[in-house]
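QA checklist item 7 of 12: single-chain prediction sanity check.
[x] sequence parsed
[x] length recorded as 225
[x] structure emitted
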Amino acid sequence: MTFSIVGRCPQTGQLGIAISSSSISVGARCPWVRAGVGAVATQNVTLPALGPEILDLLATGKLPPAQALDQALAAREWSEYRQVAVIDQQGRTAFFTGKEALGLSHAVAGQQCLAAGNMLADRRVADVMVAAFEQSEGALADRLLHAMHAAVKAGGEAGPVHSAALKIAGTQTWALVDLRVDWTDDDPVTVLDALWRRYQPQMQDYVTRALNPLAAPSYGVPGDE
């Protein structure tokens, strides 16, 4: 029901996820990021708790992604229904797809990225995502979305998708980017891309506002001079 890509920018250290699904509000359950720690996509019949639990294990600095993933899954029931993709602050990756994953499932690791999906229209969708990410340049958000567009062109999910999300951790404890398309009958990846284009010019301003309101620019709304 989902295809996604987790990735890291070696220049900025940003960690992020782009994801799309036939289910409603994929961004509420599946993408998890933490600055300086990692990014986790929990999908298929998702258990959202796995995201924070894996990030907590990675944050100790004692476990690589594969061990953190194994430990989190071992502590929970129904792992055979899960699909999980992980990347850490060093760009190391790990993934798991349970035997009860829906439809055609596949996962592929690349340079500073990992793509995974279930109920795919074609097995090569994950490979296409990795290739698109590796061959792209620019901001992490742009590279993740480029990979998602490539996935859609390669067939994406076997059925229509309705939601999408983009989540990126920078240097702060809160997400630098947290954009969601909870439901649309149109192409949610394209709608998400349009949201990113609107948000990108203001992204750093919101960080500035949070850290130093006196240095924040005005947005021209009533009361904001």
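[x] summary fact logged: The first strand starts at residue 2 and ends at 8.
[ ] second reviewer sign-off
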